[in-house]
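INTERNAL AUDIT FORM
Audit reference: QA-55
Scope: verify that the stored structure record matches its stored sequence.
Auditor: D.O.
Record contents follow.
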Amino acid sequence: MLAYTYIGHHEFAMKEKPKPEIQDERDAIVRVTLGSICTSDLHIKHGSVPRAIPGVTVGHEMVGIVDSVGKGVRTVKPGDRVAVNVETFCGECFFCKHGYVNNCTDPDGGWALGCRIDGGQAEYVRIPHADQGLNRIPSTVTDEQALFVGDILATGYWAARISEISEEDTVLIIGAGPTGICTLLCTLLKHPKRVIVCEKSEDRIKFVNEHYPDVLTTTPECCVSFAQKHSDHGGADVVIEVAGGNTTFDMAWQCARPNAIVTVVAMYDKPQILPLPDMYGKNLTFKTGGVDGCDCAEILHLIEQGEIDTTPLITHRFRLDEIETAYDIFENRKDGVIKVAIYGE
C-alpha cells in the first residue's frame, strides 16, 4: 500500500509498505477514506519532535471504514465509518480514568499515531485500543464534517473546556490557523461576552471576518492595546495561545488581565521563557500541554446537531498520490490554504 513516510530530518517520501495487520486483540485496521496534514506533521519534518521515529508513516488526522478488528474490540465492527482519535489510550490506567488520556501509560499511549507508530497518510492504518480511539460517525455526518474531530477539533474543544470560560468573559485567541479556528468554534459554544482573534495573516483575518462577523480581529502589533481597549478589566479574562510563534507566548500573558487564565495549546519549535519577575503580581493561572482527546463522541453529536461546522476550513483537496503537492501548499501557505483534505485511493 502507499504510505507517506518520515525518512529523516527535512525528508518525507511516499513508500510502498505492507498492509498493516492485527497485532493485539484490541486493535482495529481502518481503511483511510479521508485524511489531512497537521502542523504537527511539519514539526516532525523539521526535527522538532524528538520522539518521532524515522521510517514511521506520518499522519494522525483521518476518518475511514473499519476493515477488521481484533477479538477484544467491542464498540466497532467491520464496515463502520469512524473518526480516528489522534491519541491512543488504554482507558484503564490512572491517567485515563481521570480523563488525562494524553498521558496514558500504555506503551502506545498518548500521541503515537504518525509519530511513534505508523499513522494515517496511507491506505490503511492500525489503531491500538480501538474501543477508545475510534468513534462511529453518525449517518447524517459526512467524512469532511468529521475529518477534524480526532485532532484539531478535539484540541479546540479541550482548550475551551479547561479555560473555564464564562458568559461575562472577554476571550482572546492568538492564532487563526486551523487549530485556532477550531478553538474559536468551541469557544463560541460557551457564549462569552466577546471574542478577539489575533492573527498576522491577512488571508486568515479575512476568513474570520467573513465566517464569524461578530468576532473582533486584531494583529500582533496591536494586540496588547486592542485587548486592553476591548475588555472590561484591562485585558482579556481568558487568553488561549494557539499560534506557537516566536513572540506569541509573551503576547499571551501581556494581553491577560490580572488573575486571568492563560491556556497554551500551541506547540513551539523552541523553548519559551516564563519571565516571572515581569509578570509578578498579575497572579495568572497557566494551563498548558497536549490535548486530552476524550470528547470526540460529544463533538460528533454537536456536529450532527449543527452546532459545529469545520468544513469551511477545507480549502484544498487532493488524492493520496498527490500528497507532495498538498504538503508544499500547506507548509508554504500558498493559495490561501487553511486545511487540505487527502482522499484515499
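Auditor finding: record pair retrieved intact. The CA atoms of residues 52 and 193 lie 41 Å apart.
Action required: none
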